[in-house]
Amino acid sequence: MDSSRQKGRISRDIVNQLAVIVRTSQIHDPRNVAVASAVEKFVANVNALMQEEGPLEIEMVGEYFYLNGERVKFTTEHLLNFDSLLREFKRRRLGSVKFLCETRPEEVQAFLGAFISSQSAAEPFEDLRMMTERLKCIQAGGVRRIAEGSEDIRKAVKHTYFNAVSFTRGVMNKIKTGERISMKKAKRVVETMVDTLLEKEEFLLGMTVIKDYDEYTFHHSVNVSILSVALGQKLGMDKMKLMELGLVALFHDIGKTVIPNEVLNKPGAFDAEDWKLMVRHPVFGVKIIFNMKNFDASSIRAAITAYEHHIHPDGSGYPGARKLSEIDLFSRIVAIADQYDAMTSARVYARSPMSPDSALALMVRRSAAELDPLLLKFFINLVGTYPVGTLVMLDTRELGIVSGANTAEHLRPRVTIITDTDGNRINSPVVADLAEQDGAGGYPRSIVKAVDHNRYGINLAEYFL
Ligand SMILES: [Fe+2]
Ligand SMILES: [Fe+2]
Fold first, then answer.
1. Terminal-to-terminal C-alpha distance of the chain
2. Final residue of a domain: which of 144, 164, 187?
3. Are residues 367 and 414 in the same domain?
4. One domain for residues 181 and 295
5. One domain for residues 178 and 201
6. Whether residue 133 is found in the same domain as residue 240
7. Which domain holds residue 250?
8. Are residues 221 and 292 in the same domain?
9. What is the pLDDT of residues 103-133, one digit of tens each?
10. Are residues 124 and 155 in the same domain?
11. Which of 8, 109, 402, 453 would bridge 30 by S-S if both were Cys, CB 3.0 to 4.6 A apart?
């Protein structure tokens, strides 16, 4: 086996074992047998890696753990353990645990004892540091890179998102002037999106809250692509499939490029002539895709979805009727992402967007007739009970915008607090993790309900840029 993969596995095991011994020693005494055998395994792994690497540092940066500066990757089976360990670190403002020399089980147990008892201290990190000072090999470090780390991630994600938007703008402009475009570059753009989504899912999902009124179609195409890939990932698709799905979704509305802007951006209602043109965008899309360079199997799939994404399983919709089972899986996925993004965006013919939760509620009501009900369930699970971008009222009477999900606790996402308890806007919004408990095991903040951001005149994009 190649050594970097092997090292990745050992790093993951070490962090996972740390999560396990922390949790078991919260239930049992650190000297209990169940804890003791887990501690022994942990110590064996740490010492083995130290023989090759020298001192080890397990560090929390943002939402991830790093081992000697390298991010520890994990699979879904470790998700809950990693999540709970992150919470324990954050609760104590603990940034890292260092192993300076080869350790022994007794020392790890002493560290665990201090770790557990610091939980209820007024200054948990100071308390933990004091209690572990006399340990020879294990050292507790404070939070160091958290702000910088998550800043970097945000920058990278923002870059990926806007790169995809400007690529889409470029493609659509070229098509307007009659230029033939190539599928190759689109594949590269989509690959970067898929990679970013696989690594930093909630950050990229958060970007889909950006709905630009003037550049609606470009942002919409990218948003639908991101939401579709995220849904595909929930369905267990591999990276190759996800890339194809992302590409297909990015081009679903490509047919709109031949509809004149006066129609697309018409203020007020469409007349019969406008609709006649609008309902043809699926067919225009097929023609455009067939005219692209580097035509291949994924182009065919893109053409199918461009054609099918407004066909409803009950036979309504346009351009032609089909049964649910006959509609391509990609088209059914894109139809869901498409409706959701369209409903939550401000457009010329729907000036005020719906809040994410009311859009989901409406989609559920329509699902039997217009959408695949099972896929919609997965989608709701993905965007959560309180999707990123939802404005929420907290029990502290503060208002906040959901800015990140907590996988293990759907009702306790991360929220950017934007007003004080009297409803006054605050200048520098702070992010609160609603899953974080106070010393007594209670929650300082909880969501009371989702509220309509239109009523409060809040521009969501402002908080995501
Ligand atoms: Fe469409
Ligand atoms: Fe669309």
1. 43
2. 144
3. no
4. yes
5. yes
6. no
7. 148-383
8. yes
9. 999 999 999 999 998 988 888 888 999 899 8
10. no
11. 109
Given a contact cutoff of 8 angstroms between Cβ atoms, the answer to whether 406 and 413 are in contact is yes
Token pair 């920058």 is found at 155
Q: Amino acid letter at 157? A: V
- What is the model's pTM? 0.64
Do both 155 and 139 map to the same domain? Answer: no
370 pLDDT more than 50: yes
User: Which residue carries 């502290």 as its tokens?
Assistant: 396
CB 287 within 8 A of CB 372: no
Decide which of 349, 383, 417 is a domain's last residue. 383
Q: How far apart are CA 97 and CA 178, in angstroms?
A: 60
C-alpha 304 to ligand 2 mean position (Å): 14
- Between CA 464 and CA 250 the distance in angstroms is 22
Which CATH number belongs to the domain containing residue 332 in this structure? 1.10.3210.10
Burial 135-160 (b: 16+ CB within 10 A, else e): bebbbbbebebbeebbeebbebbbeb
- Strand-strand pairing, 94-99 and 138-142: antiparallel
Q: Under a CB-based contact definition with an 8 Å cutoff, are residues 195 and 243 in contact? A: no
Centroid of ligand 2 to alpha carbon of 229 (angstroms): 15
pLDDT, tens only, 81-100: 888 899 899 889 898 999 99
Question: 């945000």: which residue's tokens?
Answer: 154
Backbone angles phi, psi at 99, to 5 degrees: -110, 105
CA of 342 from ligand 1 middle (Å) equals 9
223 alpha carbon, closest ligand: 2
Considering its fold, how many domains does the chain have in total?
A: 3
Q: At what angle do helices 105-118 and 33-53 cross, to 10 degrees?
A: 110
CA of 309 to the centre of ligand 1 (A): 6
SS3 418: strand
CA of 281 to the centre of ligand 1 (A): 7
Q: Which ligand is nearest to the CA of 343?
A: 2
Residue-wise pLDDT for 27-69, tens only, equals 887 668 888 989 999 999 999 999 988 999 999 877 788 898 8
Tally of CB atoms within 10 A around 65: 26
Q: Is the peptide bond before 387 cis (omega within 30 degrees of 0)?
A: no
Q: How far is the CA of 333 from the centre of ligand 1 (A)?
A: 13
Phi, psi values for residue 71, rounded to 5°: -65, 135
Q: Smallest Cα–Cα separation from 348: which of 164, 212, 167, 210?
A: 212
